[in-house]
């Protein structure tokens, strides 16, 4: 078992993040973080895969217009939302955010934003899966736009250089990218996301035993039957450095994941994390705090939704 780890990352917060602060709700909704934790603890006991689901939701939200909970908006007959963009079709975990929001609206109406709930829920899910429990600043407001045409996230078949363009566009570095992709240590992927690695002949970048196993699982994949596999085949539900150990052995499932260990730009980071779980955990926490501050809305720039699935004044 891992020893519980709690770190405060004031030192990673540049001046631009100053208006977000740890303990933002201490005076306005003292129970906010406790409510999030309690809901996540129960949900995690029922479904350990919720950690991966929330990590993906948080990432997909922040990489569009910023961390503003725009991914939570439901489409209507008049308007399609981000939630229905193709890259978000397999995002899940919305019901967890709904449950937290319902409790907090009863306790502290119109106070805790949906964007902050995503950030806090993701943090707690990581800790419940065995990762570091980091302190994350709050104070985000919810966005007023959810446009599927704006959804552009790095795909699994990209090269390291290709994926890096998406991260640098959001103010993140190469090391941030290699670190944040470590979230795949608790993730899974449908066969359709890596089928091309199995159907174009022998892939020299993949361990032959893994390739055989994936062929058995995925077979002749079709849209009507699209099984999923764990991205870390060894410690699938544990938030640890197992992902990096796997890709070092050419056991990365997704093309981009495996390229992290093969590309000279990121190989050193992968080797370091594979050898030192504590280093990975610390750097991952810092990268999550940094990602969670991408283009956040503050004060009167957004709203605090009463229902995370719709704007307060829907058109």
Strand order of the largest sheet: 1-2
Question: What structural category arises from helix and sheet content?
Answer: mainly alpha
* Shape verdict: globular
CATH architecture of the largest domain: Orthogonal Bundle
* Tally of individual helices: 12
Portion of residues in helices? 40-55%
How many runs of DSSP E, i.e. beta strands? Answer: 4
**End-to-end gap:** 50 Å
Family: Belongs to the peroxidase family. Classical plant (class III) peroxidase subfamily.
Cofactor: Ca(2+); heme b
Binding site for substrate: 154
GO molecular function, one term: metal ion binding
Describe this structure in words.
The chain is mostly helical and 315 residues long. The protein folds into 2 domains: 6-152 and 293-301, Orthogonal Bundle (Peroxidase, domain 1); 160-285, Peroxidase, domain 2 (Orthogonal Bundle), CATH 1.10.420. Helices cover 40% and strands 4% of the residues. It is built from 12 helices and 4 strands. The strands form 2 sheets. It has a two-stranded parallel ribbon with strand order 1-2. It has a two-stranded antiparallel sheet with strand order 3-4. Helix 1 packs antiparallel against helix 3 (94-107), helix 1 crosses helix 4 and helix 2 (50-62) packs antiparallel against helix 4. The longest helix is centred in the N-terminal third of the chain and has 15 residues, at 32-46. The chain is globular. Its EC number is 1.11.1.7. It is found in: Secreted. This is Peroxidase. Belongs to the peroxidase family. Classical plant (class III) peroxidase subfamily. Belongs to the peroxidase family. Ascorbate peroxidase subfamily.
């Amino acid at each position: 078992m891992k020893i519980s780890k709690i770190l405060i990352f004031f030192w990673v917060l540049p001046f631009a993040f100053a208006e977000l602060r740890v303990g933002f709700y201490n005076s306005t909704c003292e129970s906010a973080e406790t409510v999030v934790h309690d809901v996540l603890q129960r949900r995690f006991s029922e479904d350990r895969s919720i950690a991966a689901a929330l990590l993906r939701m948080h990432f997909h939200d922040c990489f569009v217009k910023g961390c503003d909970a725009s991914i939570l908006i439901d489409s209507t007959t008049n308007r399609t939302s981000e939630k229905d963009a193709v890259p978000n079709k397999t995002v899940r975990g919305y019901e967890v955010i709904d449950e937290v929001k319902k409790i907090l609206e009863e306790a502290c109406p119109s106070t805790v934003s949906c964007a902050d709930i995503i950030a806090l829920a993701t943090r707690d899910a990581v800790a419940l899966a065995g990762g570091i429990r980091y302190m994350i600043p709050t104070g985000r407001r919810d966005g007023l736009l959810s446009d599927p045409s704006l959804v552009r996230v790095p795909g699994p078949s990209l090269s390291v250089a290709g994926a890096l363009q998406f991260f640098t566009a959001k103010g993140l570095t190469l090391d941030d990218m290699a670190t944040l992709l470590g979230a795949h240590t608790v993730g899974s992927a449908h066969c359709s996301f890596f089928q091309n690695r199995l159907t174009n002949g022998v892939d020299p970048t993949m361990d032959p035993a893994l390739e055989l196993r994936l062929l058995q699982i995925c077979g002749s994949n079709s849209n009507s039957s699209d099984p999923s596999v764990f991205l870390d085949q060894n410690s699938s539900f544990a938030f640890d450095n197992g992902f990096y150990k796997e890709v070092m052995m050419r056991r990365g499932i997704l093309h981009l994941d495996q390229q992290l260990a093969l590309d000279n730009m990121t190989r050193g980071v992968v080797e370091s994390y594979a050898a030192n779980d504590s280093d990975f955990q610390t750097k991952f926490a810092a990268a999550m705090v940094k990602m969670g501050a991408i283009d956040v809305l503050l004060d009167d720039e957004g709203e605090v939704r009463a229902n995370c699935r719709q704007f307060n004044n829907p058109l």
